[in-house]
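Hi W., the adenosine monophosphate complex you wanted:
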Amino acid sequence: MINLILFGKPGSGKGTQAEFVKKKYDLIHISTGDVFRYNISQKTDLGILAKSYMESGDLVPDNVTIQILQAEVNKNPDANGFIFDGFPRTTLQAEMLDEFLKNKNLSISMTIALEVDANVLIDRLINRGKDSGRADDQDRSKIQNRFEEYNNKTSPLINYYRSQNKFFEIDGTGKISEISKRIFNVIDSNI
Ligand code: AMP
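Structure:
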């Protein structure tokens, strides 16, 4: 079983690459951001709660996010493995994920980080916002806040996974297909 974390700042291409990785290795793709956006579109209680955080570019509280993640994993008991995209984003989420998987006799196989320069990310996000209409992609101050959330709360995970020898970085710029190949190489060399 391959349980992979796709890691990187907002706009680094995690969602795009998750689609290719999912097809090649027959994995279930879980994006907590997608789950929240779906709930917002359905106007569920979770959606209403998540919206207030997401719109300003803040992280949704850990207790809510962790429950969502566990429910998504539990929906797929026969999976060959999972791609976690946009989760974990805090140390508590990472610790809870390890414990949750351990209870199922599973573990994280590796974390692959997509490295992209901040200026490139801002351009990518603004362009994506024009197409998708995502409020959090259209406003520079919201984007800036998401980067700050990443720097303060998510970047400590680099050391968390590095200390377990599970952290791999790849260049997240260039052709989409080339980036996919870099990811496949890391997976194939480490499973
Ligand atoms: P994403 O689609 O991964 O860029 O996530 C969009 C937004 O959803 C983030 O800016 C957060 O507000 C929220 N979100 C997604 N995943 C998480 C997470 N693991 N922890 C907290 N908030 C999250």
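The pocket of adenosine monophosphate is lined by residues 10, 32-33, 36, 53-54, 57-60, 65, 86-89, 93, 136, 146 (CB under 6 Å).

W.
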